[in-house]
Design goal:
This is Cobyrinic acid a,c-diamide synthase. By secondary structure, the protein is of the alpha/beta class. The protein has eight helices and six strands. It binds adenosine-5'-diphosphate and magnesium ion.
Length: 210
């Protein structure tokens, strides 16, 4: 049983994409639900597009009453994944962080985005007295290995107060195609296999110490 929250201070970093693909990657191990805590409801919309396609996780929209929703769903699911709004100060984000075992923070390869994670580290410190076992990790997202910036990111990230996952998620067009079709990369066959392998590797890292 685990509660994983995907948080961040900006839109467009890849939170929803990570939440949904993580859920699909964990699904073979038992029931998984994604709670869409973002009032924009992109995860929920994506799930509507997916319809009854096999291999998709359940998605529940819960921008309000989040704590009760998490507490209820953790009883019946092996993993509860919370897709948070793009603000670390949002009440949903703080509520989810108080209950979670794992927090993932996708960050795009930009120095400014990295610097912005300082605020996230502070929020994590604030909830830590209530939730001392919370483990947080930055996940490099939408990396383009051929660009200098992406190459410099691991070095820059090493300066931060938060650990950085050694699995980085590359920018791959299959992720955008999958959204259109209501799939995750796990339903995209060979076209999605490299992206799916990245997600599996991240899953192994998340649970490495459990
Ligand atoms: N690894 C990736 N490669 C390519 N496109 C991505 C990747 N991750 C996310 N995207 C795209 O970037 C946009 C923002 O992603 P999204 O998951 O909605 O971010 P957030 O939830 O943080 O706002 C979407 O169009 C999504 O398809
Ligand atoms: Mg989102």
């Amino acid at each position: 049983m685990s509660i994983i929250v995907v948080v961040g201070n900006k839109g467009g970093t890849g939170k929803t994409t990570l939440a949904l693909n993580l859920a699909a990657g964990l699904l073979p191990g038992g029931p998984v639900v994604v709670i869409d805590a973002d009032p924009q409801q992109s995860a929920y919309q994506w799930r509507l597009v997916g319809g009854d396609r096999p291999g998709l996780p359940a998605v529940v929209a819960a921008a309000h009453g989040l704590e009760q929703t998490i507490t209820a769903l953790r009883e019946t699911h092996r993993h509860v994944i919370v897709d948070c709004p793009p603000s670390i100060k949002a009440p949903q984000t703080e509520a989810a962080l108080r209950l979670a075992e794992h927090a993932l923070i996708p960050v795009q390869p930009s120095p400014m985005d990295l610097w912005a994670t300082t605020h996230i580290a502070r929020t994590l410190e604030r909830v830590r007295p209530e939730n001392p076992s919370l483990r947080a990790m930055i996940v490099m997202s939408q990396i383009e290995p051929r660009t200098t910036l992406s190459r410099l990111m691991p070095e820059a990230a090493a300066e931060l107060d938060l650990p950085v996952a050694s699995t980085a998620l590359r920018r791959r067009s299959i992720h955008r195609h999958c959204v259109l079709e209501g799939r995750t990369v796990f339903q995209a066959g060979r076209r999605g296999s490299e992206a799916a392998a990245e997600i599996q590797s991240l899953i192994a890292e998340i649970f490495a110490d459990d």
